[in-house]
Amino acid sequence: MHYQFEFRPYQRRFVRSLTTNHGKWDIREGIILRLTDESGKVGWGEIAPISWFGSETLEQALDFCRQLPREITDEIIFSIPDELPACQFGFESAQEWRSEFFSMPHTQSFSALLPSGEAALNQWETLWQQGYRTFKWKIGVYAIAHELEIFESLIHTLPAFTKLRLDANGGLTYEEANLWLWTCDNLKENGEIPLEIEFIEQPLPVEQFQQMLELSMSYETAIALDESVATLGQLAACYQQGWRGIFVIKPGIVGSPSGLRKFCHQHQIDTVFSSVFETAIARQAALQLAAELSKNNRAIGFGIDHFFEQEETWLQSLWNDL
């Protein structure tokens, strides 16, 4: 199949800076792709890299798009190198978009991202009223003693039957990870709280895989890998090294959707699908994959709308204003 290929870079400003262990993030930048096939059917795709998370840079993605001809083929799309995982996802999604493939209803429950620090204590209620029952809170941002105090307040404030995920973005030391896991195990054992600490996400840096494997066997509280499994290659490597815990998959940067399907069908891993702060275009493709491949009915991490101003016509403007 041959396609007319066009692309446009975009920028979207966060309503408030997103603060993680990786630093502050103010503007989400990416690229929207449009493929038009020989019958005039249009497919949309999105490249939404996060270089500090393991994908290519925005500049590398732009360079790749700029060097492509105006007319591309399936062969070109399926031969994008693994070093460009966000490009692989964007182009394959655009190619799939044209088919009736995007028709599956999305019935999954969503997890909402809380701001780091004390701001979480003020925001969960609004999100609860919007229907969220699973929350993710960033840790490893402030001093651990301070975060444990906020955590204590948060778990006694959240309603019963809430699920809470703690996301360290690889920002804890081995001692701090032990302390968090011990604290969560203790709460569970003493039956002190009616909510569930679902897991701690990526407690240690990527290079400390063996320590995370060891911790996952030492505590009741589950550990999920995130940065460690950012791309399909990393995901396969962690599986081969014995990880059988939770894998957080960010479709927008994991790489080829067809490759991901193949891996998940082959290995039946425990997955949580998560956003990369993409627009509605990549989100549609990501939700499609989540609907197909989620195994244990875990809430998916796409409750991020409150981080952006809602602008209904942004795609039309992006295409027409250039």
State the gist of this model.
By secondary structure, the chain is of the alpha/beta class.
Give the topology, please.
Layout: E1 2-20, E2 23-37, E3 42-47, H1 58-67, E4 71-73, H2 74-77, H3 85-97, E5 110-114, H4 119-129, E6 134-138, H5 144-157, E7 163-167, H6 174-189, E8 196-201, H7 209-218, E9 223-225, H8 232-240, E10 246-249, H9 251-254, H10 257-267, E11 270-273, H11 280-293, E12 300-303, H12 314-320
Parallel strand pairs: 5-6, 5-12, 6-7, 7-8, 8-9, 9-10, 10-11
Antiparallel strand pairs: 1-2, 1-4, 2-3
Features:
322 residues; alpha/beta; 8-stranded parallel β-sheet; 4-stranded antiparallel β-sheet; 12 helices; 12 strands; 38% helix
Describe this structure in words.
The chain has 322 residues and is of the alpha/beta class. The protein is 38% helix and 25% strand. The protein contains twelve helices and twelve strands. The chain has helices spanning 58-67, 74-77, 85-97, 119-129, 144-157, 174-189, 209-218, 232-240, 251-254, 257-267, 280-293, 314-320; strands spanning 2-20, 23-37, 42-47, 71-73, 110-114, 134-138, 163-167, 196-201, 223-225, 246-249, 270-273, 300-303. It has an eight-stranded parallel sheet. It has a four-stranded antiparallel sheet with strand order 3-2-1-4, with helices on both faces. It is globular. The chain starts with a strand and ends with a helix. The model has no long low-confidence stretch (mean pLDDT 92).
